[in-house]
């Protein structure tokens, strides 16, 4: 693991006995106490994740808005300062290069949070499509750290830690503020299906914030729980539900594709995809019993015809159900359709159910 | 790693305890830690036969699915009922025992070897630990 990148919290993870695994070129904590306990902490109270491996790119200067609107499927120009938007970056054939969060800070100033595995690809893509020399693209990943605080108690946990009260942030909004004398940015976003915040700060300040959150009873959670939480919340994961061979329409992400905004890379392919009823689409599956379907397992119709492939699956700790996401042919995608999963040596009965599997009850 | 010296091991992380009549089989602490918390266990029926080196069951966690490999051939003489759901009483099996006490209460099955064999083909604790070290654990 000597060639792996380490986050600013790596030594802390080691000292806490976290199990470290390689992930997208980084040495990351898979779990501390255990995936199930960490998963339940996020659903019932609050957990925190070191997500410093996510790529953080700054894009600014005259032409930044035009550049991002040309590479993003979602509409960038109408965003308000302080707003965050989920978007896909697609290639000309409509396949997904990455799914990203775009933060708008000012007229021509943005941050992008991208998947760790796609950081170099996205950087190169932005450079390639930059038409103006005035647009600066900086990779701030290694100089910064990123921490997610998630769960019903997340808002209480971050109260008065920052110069601005993050509890006043609306969902999918961000602010630049201070943690003591440290400049940070924070958003009301996350990847668990819970209320929560994602905070970016200089790498050298990460440990102090982490310890202060710990002092407020926020449980450290690893990538294991992050994966089961996002699965339960029906959120796609790049490399599983999203790839360069899959378009956002199939993935059920048409809401993040704004045909009304004008031209963007992949637009004409996606307009065709919208009419195409022959491509497999993403569905949620509930499986009978406790056995899990895993990525790559075949999905069969009730009659035994191959109709698709599982992309993610696990026994989900909060709902206590075996759940999976899969791509299946459109005529097998209706909610309620009975299907089977083919495992080595076994067939599991499954049914199409609505996504997300888990949806939090809004507070209040 | 604290693998008990009186047990024998497979390269696939099962252990065997021999009492002269039955071979008790479980998975090592290393295996269960790799797996994380067990969520599903499938064991062969009483009286069924298992074959050395072939899968006899499946164990799953929230993270992964693993086959369980028989260390020797024989007939399944016992299954650890503490681990398994009991439909008659409605009691739910306690899979956490495998994580908490993999070499003790978390045992899986007992095999009556057929034909009778020695355990000489299986790894000693020392050899097993050497294998783990060689794999970088």
TrEMBL record, chain A:
Gene3D superfamilies, alphabetized: Aminomethyltransferase beta-barrel domains, Aminomethyltransferase fragment, Probable tRNA modification gtpase trme, domain 1
Primary enzyme class: transferase
Gene Ontology cellular component list: cytosol; glycine cleavage complex
GO molecular function, one term: transaminase activity
Signal peptide: none
Catalysed reactions listed for this entry: N(6)-[(R)-S(8)-aminomethyldihydrolipoyl]-L-lysyl-[protein] + (6S)-5,6,7,8-tetrahydrofolate = N(6)-[(R)-dihydrolipoyl]-L-lysyl-[protein] + (6R)-5,10-methylene-5,6,7,8-tetrahydrofolate + NH4(+)
GO biological process, one term: glycine decarboxylation via glycine cleavage system
Biological role stated in the UniProt entry: The glycine cleavage system catalyzes the degradation of glycine.
Family: Belongs to the GcvT family.
Name of the protein: Aminomethyltransferase
Organism this protein belongs to: Thermogemmata fonticola
